[in-house]
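Anyone able to model this chain together with manganese (II) ion?
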Amino acid sequence: MDRIAIISDIHSNMPALEAVLADIKERGIKRIICLGDLVGKGANPKEVVDIIRNTCETVVKGNWDYLVAEVADGETMKWNNIRLDEEQIDFLKNLPLYIEFYISGKLVRMCHAAPNDVFLRIRSNCTVEEKSVLFNPPKNGAKECDVLIYGDIHVAYIQNFNQKTLINVGSVGVPLQVSQASYAILEGKLDERTEAPISFTLVRVPYDVEKAVRDAKEAKVPNFEKYSHELNYGQVYRP
Ligand SMILES: [Mn+2]
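re: yes, here you go
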């Protein structure tokens, strides 16, 4: 069996990323795919981009990666942009929007929010009809996928419907509902077109939330109150 760890939405949170990478290593998993939103919100955009480049075999583009590297408008995006060097900006600009491969007879597609749109937000409580668009072929000649794995909403869940499986891996750096870093493990026979056993695991990893909050305060990240609320309570901040 082949095992792949899928991480997403690190948002510059180093203590959370380190805890997740240590857990992946402890389990002996060698392959890691990242579903975007490396930067934004937390204290360490530069360090996080470097670590992700060195540890992940594939990285897809998130909405924050796009906004920080390619738009850089507004206080938060500028704060992140100026902390990255030219090579890191180029790396974020050139990320693909999705990747796909076969595992245990299933065509698996992975993206940040939707295969062709980093801004389409499909929440866990959306209807099956709304969620179904994620399985559509992203370009002419592509196929409908069997399994779609995404990030963006920071809420981890697995749902089966209409012979398909939809998985959100949650967020490493700004996890909602439970204040522990979230990621997923996919296990099956890689590049196998014949159906075989396959498994999807959602993992939660405790990490030093206090340190992440302290680092962000010291770094004077924009919207610190909102960020610390999200880390401490696992809820979107509503003042
Ligand atoms: Mn995000």
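The chain has a mean pLDDT of 97.
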